[in-house]
Amino acid sequence: MIKSLMLLLLSSLPVVSAAQDTPGDWSPDSVDWQDISADGTRYRLLEGERERPGAAFSYAFFVPAGAWDAPHSHSTTARIFVARGELRLGYGERMDKVAVKAYPAGSYLVVPAGMVHFDGAESDTLIFGTASGPWKTTYTDRGHATAGTPAD
């Protein structure tokens, strides 16, 4: 089931960039994190280019138990698969942890470009995502940042 959802996730992006010339594969236990933030979040670009217009890319993001990301939006649509734990996500410019929806492992969700949202986890959570470039994260408070998403 999880493999089927991952294939759906990865095949959901339009083919707009050159194919990767070497195979790649990752499991929740094999991600070699490239960016670890002070809040414990971790990020890894798995393949592709975040900065190139129209180029597809895939990433892994780890949210430790108790961590929350302030309200923000992304420049392009994010397609997310929850591989481990439970992602909690809500929409709006004010963080309201009571109003979030819980997405357990195996869930797939789409966060549209420009839609302000906030997210976090009460248990260690790992997501795999796909999007297209150029990728930019804009925080409503302009001072917050997590691994892989520097503040503007």
UniProtKB/TrEMBL annotation:
<dbReference type="InterPro" id="IPR011051">
    <property type="entry name" value="RmlC_Cupin_sf"/>
</dbReference>
<dbReference type="InterPro" id="IPR025979">
    <property type="entry name" value="ChrR-like_cupin_dom"/>
</dbReference>
<dbReference type="InterPro" id="IPR014710">
    <property type="entry name" value="RmlC-like_jellyroll"/>
</dbReference>
<dbReference type="Pfam" id="PF12973">
    <property type="entry name" value="Cupin_7"/>
</dbReference>
<protein>
    <recommendedName>
        <fullName>ChrR-like cupin domain-containing protein</fullName>
    </recommendedName>
</protein>
<keyword id="KW-0732">Signal</keyword>
<feature type="domain" description="ChrR-like cupin">
    <location>
        <begin position="28"/>
        <end position="134"/>
    </location>
</feature>
<feature type="signal peptide">
    <location>
        <begin position="1"/>
        <end position="18"/>
    </location>
</feature>
